[in-house]
Amino acid sequence: MIIEYEEKLLELIDARIESASDDELFAGGYLRGHISLSAASCEEEGVTDISCLCQRIDDSLDDAKSELTPADQVVVVSLWSELQAQMAKF
Q: Alpha helix (H) ranges present in the chain?
């Protein structure tokens, strides 16, 4: 279930590429790394709960926020929130 959820998140990011602004492209690429690393750690540990995956992504983004400018943080968090809203149906 985790892998399928990850794949769907990445598909949603990819679907935005043609119409995305530079900031959105950056945020998508940045999020891809956090999503994939979090999914891999869940798989490695046998975690199957999607809420745990989302929490790990949140934690990963929070831990790395010093890597981003405040403006970039807003764009990344905004995209992550949009993706989560779209995935609520998954």
A: 2-15, 22-45, 50-63, 70-87
